Amino acid sequence: MTKTGIGASVKRKEDQRFITGNGQYTDDVSRPGHVHAYFLRSPHAHAVIRRLDIAAAKGAPGVLGVFTGDDLAADKIGGLICGWMIHSKDGSAMKAGAHPALAQGKVRYVGDHVAVVIAETLAEARDGAEKIIVDYEVLPAVIDTAGAQAAKTQLHDVAPRNTVFEWAIGDKAATEAAFGAAHHVTKIDLVNNRLVPNAMEPRAAIGEYDPGQGAYTLWTTSQNPHVARLVLSAFIGIAPENKLRVIAPDVGGGFGSKIFIYAEETVAVWASKKVGRPVKWVSDRTEAFLSDAHGRDHVTHAELAMDAKGKILGLRVKTIANLGAYLSTFSSSVPTYLYATLLSGQYDIPAIYAEVDAVYTNTAPVDAYRGAGRPEATFVVERIIETAARQMGLDPADLRKRNFVRKFPHQTPVIMMYDAGDYRASLDKAMEIADVKGFGKRKREAARRGRLRGLGYSTYIEACGIAPSQAVGSLGAGVGLWESAEVRVNPTGSVEVLTGSHAHGQGHETTFAQLVSERLGVPMESINIVHGDTDKVQFGMGTYGSRSGAVGMSAIVKALDKVEAKAKKVAAHLLEASEADIDFKDGKFTVKGTDKSVAFADVALNAYVAHKFPTSEIEPGLKEGAFYDPTNFTFPAGCHICEVEIDPETGVTEIANYTAVDDFGVLINPMIVEGQVHGGIAQGIGQALTEGAVYDASGQLLTASYMDYCMPRADNLPSFKLGFTETRCPSNPLGIKGCGEAGAIAAPAAVMNAMTDALGTEAVTMPATPQAVWKVAQSQQKLAAAE
Amino acid sequence: MYAFTYLRPGSVRGASKALATKENAKLLAGGQTLLPTMKQRLASPDHIVDLSQIDDLKNIEQKGRRIVIGAMATHASVASSALVRDNIPALAALAGGIGDPAVRHRGTIGGSVANNDPAADYPAAVLALGATIHTNKRKIAADEFFAGLFTTALEEDEVITKITFPMPSRAAYQKFRNPASRYALVGVFVAKRGRDIRVTVTGAGSNGVFRWSAAEAALSKRFSVKSLEGLSISASGLNGDIHASPEYRAHLIAVMTARAVAAA
Asked: PANTHER family, from UniProt (chain A) (predicted)?
């Protein structure tokens, strides 16, 4: 290992500019004469627009344009799309209600887009919006996830019973048979609470039309600018791809919420031509709460069949997934192929059958949020196995060990083929770090202080490195999920790497450079990672699903292989040796068995000067590109152990200990990996203890600011104890599995298993706020008193 | 934010005059409530009368057995004042626990008391310590001052100038924070001054800060946690929201009162 190579905890190159205020975020982009967009949003969850009068707004000071859904329709601008087709059990296609960027006659959630006002200043745009007259005929709202299908009100004409699809996976008959043979059946009802993503940087866009070129440029907060361009071009119809440039500059966090193509950037780029000025829109925090795609929101009933020895025989699951008012870009894939395919967990389960009904409600659209489906799956599997252990009087760690998958590859009953792992190793290591042996003593000591102490496990698995293109295509994806890379060696030996993996906090500028530095022997400061601009990077699929390392870096490896191969040809001529005799190591080409060598930079210069090799055989220059399509998902896995202490008098929970042992395969930069794990666990603890979007019965979002939506803070979190185990991922050249989502996937189950252990009942729901915990503690005390 | 006219008088008299004569005028103290409300377009005063240049409103001094705090003293200056820390440490601790550092360096005691937010901390201290609110016109006893949600005894053109706190022999403030906003979900201030024992509750009452007279009576017999055993408060008249039902708040009042007595 070199000081900056793979495995080194190199300081992040990008942080200097971020922490000194020199980042370039979308709101930092100023275009000559740019004007401001303000969206008039629906104050009602469900209403027919009887009258929309924009005349007074059009005449307001500073206003350049007021547009409605009619204007978009007149320009043949299409609605927003959902790019993953799901078919119901009966073979019918999912019921996708129209999703116009600006409402056409109806609004379906609070925050839905009614009209846009473009003005010289933001204040003038807001003043103008206040002059728009809307007559709403308010309709009853459908809010409740579990009750949506029975509601009398229907959101979309195409979707009876507010049902998007009724999908299933697995072998129903085999699963029924497994339950028929069961010695013990554990049943559980779970709610996976709705979360608001809350990236530090809110969404933003600035669209500009160049009449000379007849082309648009859109700067936007995107995790995948090429996909945004593809959708805006091919489906929404803003402009052909060669007339639309999308730039996602520095982006301050995404967590999934910036994968999707939203109304605001669509309207901003379209309107820039209408008003003849660049149009900027920046979300404020309340708009973010109302209109960013939310995450999770499942209601699940699950049953686990066990034999007398604690061997799992089968699992059946029924989930209702709330997708909100419209289908967001990848929403349909989240509660289906990203969720139910992970219901086997780390366990050898012979039979699984899962049904998922997706429903519309008058709430913000729901789509992928850090982990996307896999946290929901882990929550089901890990809560039910912990519950089963308690019901059967077995040690929860032992029960897991009895059921772990031990032989690889392992085909689960729900599509996934696990390729490598050692689940026992991560459990053992986590138990050691967490000092599980000493827990009983700590629990007794806490009891003396009047505190309830509990311990919970989460032995999670996820499918990352998304994803083999043919496989996802066969499951309904509208795109392939490969990645591209181009390595450009400059004549002086510095290197630019163009990647389709977008960075919005992950540290790619450092980790990708570490790979290149190790491979080419070029110092870190001579390597630039270029991403996020469709005019620079030819195409790419973006960053989500913990795919940038496993897929994005694999593409870079392929391109580096080609660069090295070509450089060897040039070096052979320079060293007057046979190409087969050339070795390349530590930035030097040498001739086997001699002391003759030439440095990489000299080879690069010669490749461009092209004086010393026949250009009829070898083309000048040193630049190679590659597309890498993974052959399988990757399967990060591990064991998280949480210990909580509850004050039953107030219901306040303290995370007393949190241990995470993860197997992410090969680590490129352990420090950055630890940061990813920390952030993920914080979000997972947030889901378990503090966060939850709450709509009232009329569809008003009660948690639309930080006054009511409780983000986890430093004082909610302990100092995490981390450990790693390593089994190489066999399907990609670097052996990487991915680490971006693990914390958020594992933590909710670990925390809630600890909470239910401490409280002595499974009836604890997320978020386990002080009030909720106090109520449970009260009823437990009453029960105890009655006994 | 809508457009408004900004005024910055150099004296309390000037501020009072502006309040009396200018159309739809509002005083700006620390601005920690007013400015966010204006940014959200929920308040639209035509005139803003900024008190920040009136220097003699910022003093903190001792007068006999009393600590006198100027209305424009920030939470940070109260929290760090040696006079307050030495003589009424519970008040200094309360000020040091308001909001976050940014809020504490802008927000003022006068602004907090005049606004009378039902979840604000200062009203609990002012009422429990039996403080006196001084204005440009008169002195108002704490018991007469707080008149309900965001409502006080202040008249239209009245400006708080200072607040006088008698020194207690024992006092403590215990706050159970709203997990999200970190405002007081329930805050209980307990103070003992001679035979006068007061227990005040903020964050919980649907009419703002109030005295829990049953607890005061119990503690008058003996100032001890034991005196509170078995004592509870009715949930009726308490606030309920997604963070805490009236019943939970009632429970927390009893818990926080006991903790305050223990800490006092």
From this structure: ALDEHYDE OXIDASE 1-RELATED, XANTHINE DEHYDROGENASE
